[in-house]
Write a structure and sequence with these properties.
CATH superfamily of the largest domain: Type I PLP-dependent aspartate aminotransferase-like (Major domain)
Number of domains: 2
Helix content: 40-55%
Distance between the termini: 21 Å
Number of helices: 14
Structural class: alpha/beta
Strand order of the largest sheet: 2-8-7-6-5-3-4
Bound molecules: pyridoxal-5'-phosphate
Amino acid sequence: MIDLRSDTVTRPSKKMLEAMMAARVGDDVLGDDPTVNALEEKAAEMFGMEAALFCPSGTMTNQIAINVRTRPGDEVICHRFSHVYYYEGGGMMRNSGVSVCLLDGPRGLITAREVEDHINPASDPHRPLTSLVEVENTMNKGGGACYDFGELERISAVCRKQGLKFHLDGARLFNALATAGGTPAQYGSIVDSVSICLSKGLGAPVGSLLIGDKSFIKQGRRVRKAFGGGMRQAGYLAAAGIYALDHNITRLAEDHTRARYLGEILKSMPYVEMVYPVETNIVIFKLGARWSAREFLDRLKENDIHALSLDPRGIRFVTHLDFTEEMMEQVEQVLKSLA
Ligand SMILES: *Cc1c(COP(=O)(O)O)cnc(C)c1O
């Protein structure tokens, strides 16, 4: 089976499993799992920040960041299609009782100008108090779009000037770095917190990290406990994360090459109406009148290829480290045969 549904479908490699099995572990809720501590230190250092917190999912790292940075009734500025709003089960409203101000930029990206225009004046008690700005890089529902670093610097400057906190959902930040350049530390220097996922393009089975300053992470640790995310001998999972950070970052460029190639093939298929620009490992395209998304997914499935539909006409392919060159050739053949 060829699985293009998401980059979360990867299985740990033999070497990753060996690293996991060899991990030294302790009880992380008591703070003495040496492998979790090593992963947290490594991530903090990469981003030039003080501390990090290992969590079961990227939803949890985002939700913890929102919970620490807001009080009930506060407002969070984010894009309408941001993962924190659109794909986390209503978590921010449910867990933190916050209000949202949803922005509408193209491909899921927001600008400093729009952020500035939507901050409620703290002096006006009628309006919810704006306390947090959230951006996503790469932007999942925006087809893996990347921010221009300069725009993020400008958003950061607006946040500092207005006393707001700035959270980066970097579930696929390493994909953004592979395309747009830059280092994790550059991003660490302009935000108050970052969340990264080890279980997406980096190939770990489980795990995300929340990174920020010491006092923020200390508060986050309490929230993680309250959300039920404290894990005990989590070093087995953290070992996979360390392996992923050491071995699976530079190869992301291969996923991007394959995604771009898929995009090129799709562009010339008569049943495809349009393909969104392919910047990273996500390919989103719209079908013409011939098939609905459901029918097209069935055609693919008959050929052992699995993908996801985003809406009645939209299909998403995501490339990843278990999607090989041979599979790529097979997909190319199938796509062409369907024409
Ligand atoms: C996948 C993802 C997350 C976290 O998802 P989990 O499945 O909870 O780990 C967060 N943000 C974005 C943009 C994502 O794509």
